[in-house]
Design goal:
It is built from 14 helices and twelve strands. The protein is globular and about 70 Å long. α6 links the parallel β7 and β8. α4 packs antiparallel against α5 and α10 packs across α11. The protein has about 350 residues and is of the alpha+beta class. Bound molecules: thymidine-5'-triphosphate and magnesium ion (MG). The site of thymidine-5'-triphosphate has 20 residues, from β1, α1 and β3.
């Protein structure tokens, strides 16, 4: 089945928000980042500054040499997070299948929208307009049959661009595409490809899968696919994890706190391992326990403002147990998490490697 994928990416996002809030910054070269005196780095800059060669992740001092009249303002993350939430709300008016990649970027799968009037292109147009109206910034959009082409397309006419690559144009569009446009091909891989005479996707098509694998390892498989405009990756809606927990049902009911203390110690260690595996330390909001009594009733007790300390769990369990003071069949320990989609795209600033999709240099 042919899919319909939209990729949305805001134009010079942090800079656009600052220009919106400080109109005097419009039309002059400006950037968002740390000051040159403090060896700061830019997060991004507006398109006026880009004309001077100023770029994201560039040391501010270097940017000032390229463009001495550059105005640099400090980042205000809370504003960008808020704007990001509004953008996601707008996407959600059209589909639930939204995969955010960072604060200002997302894939949408609108294949299922069968309304003749509401084509993928119209949806992209409507989103661009709604973002402009609600946030007073511009986003660029790409519409095509898969993530790869939609992403390349959204970048095609930046800023404030809409590029649609319909199914019957995919082949020609991709053939002429520079290999540098393939996500994952960073500067190093591009150089290596150029040495082999691979400049466009049409060049890559001349190579067998076997040879691509031999020269580029696992990434050779990706190159083989992308060069033909293929990308089967689904749009994966972010499932926001709400809690991490462990629980244990006892073979025989335990009578109360005195008896379960050693059991809790081990359960607590399991919980710590789960939190570690989920990398959830920084988003813990509350600790909670669950008790199931031998009459099959369940009770939970929560405590805010804890980083999940073992002693807290012992207290919470004692508190829960006193509610019934009956033998216990099951005990659960857990933490509730704050919505951590807010934390996407931090810490600042990104290094080039952490921002590109798995550059392969093998
Ligand atoms: P991008 O979408 O990569 O860049 P952009 O929106 O500023 O510009 P473009 O018009 O080319 O899309 O990143 C989104 C935001 O993420 C950007 O506004 C600032 C932040 N960011 C960093 O903090 N460090 C970085 O190195 C990059 C690339 C972005
Ligand atoms: Mg952007």
């Amino acid at each position: 089945m042919l899919r319909k994928i939209i990729h949305i990416d805001a134009d010079c996002f942090y800079a656009a928000i600052e220009m919106r809030d400080h109109p005097e910054l419009r039309g002059i070269p400006m950037a968002v980042g740390g000051s040159a005196e403090r060896r700061g780095v830019l997060t991004t800059c507006n398109y006026d500054a880009r004309a001077y060669g100023v770029r994201s992740a560039m040391p501010t001092a270097q940017a000032m040499r390229l463009c001495p009249q550059l105005t640099v303002v400090p980042p205000q993350m809370h504003k960008y997070r808020k704007a990001s939430k509004v953008m996601r709300g707008i996407f959600a008016n059209f589909t639930e299948i939204i995969e955010p990649l960072s604060l200002d970027e997302a894939y949408l799968d609108v294949s299922e929208i069968s309304d003749e009037e509401l084509t993928a292109t119209r949806i992209a147009k409507a989103i661009r307009q709604q973002v402009r109206e609600e946030l007073d910034i511009t986003v660029s959009a790409g519409v095509s049959v898969n993530k790869f082409i939609a992403k390349v397309a959204s970048d095609w006419k930046k800023p404030d661009g809409l590029t649609v690559v319909p199914p019957d144009e995919v082949d020609a569009f991709v053939a002429a595409l520079s290999v540098k446009k393939i996500p994952g091909v960073g500067a190093v891989t591009a150089d290596k490809m150029h040495r082999y005479g691979l400049r466009t996707c049409a060049d890559v098509r001349e190579w067998s899968l076997h040879d691509l694998r031999r020269r580029f390892g696992k990434f050779g498989v990706v190159l083989h696919e992308r060069a033909r405009g293929r990308d089967e990756r689904p749009v994966q809606p972010s499932r926001v994890r709400k809690s991490v927990s462990v629980e244990r049902t006892f073979a025989e009911d335990v009578s109360g706190p005195a008896e379960w203390e050693p059991i809790i110690e081990r359960l607590y260690i399991n919980l710590m391992e789960r939190i570690e595996a989920a990398k959830a330390w920084h988003v813990i909001d509350k600790a909670f326990v669950k008790l199931k009594f031998n009459d099959f009733t369940t009770t939970t007790v929560e405590r805010v403002g804890t980083k999940a300390v073992e002693a807290d769990y012992q207290d919470l369990l004692a508190e829960g147990w006193e509610r019934k003071a009956k033998p216990v069949r099951l005990i659960g320990l857990g933490v509730r998490l704050v919505d951590d989609t807010d934390h996407i795209s931090e810490p600042l600033p990104f290094s080039e490697t952490s921002f590109s999709e798995n550059d392969a240099n093998s």
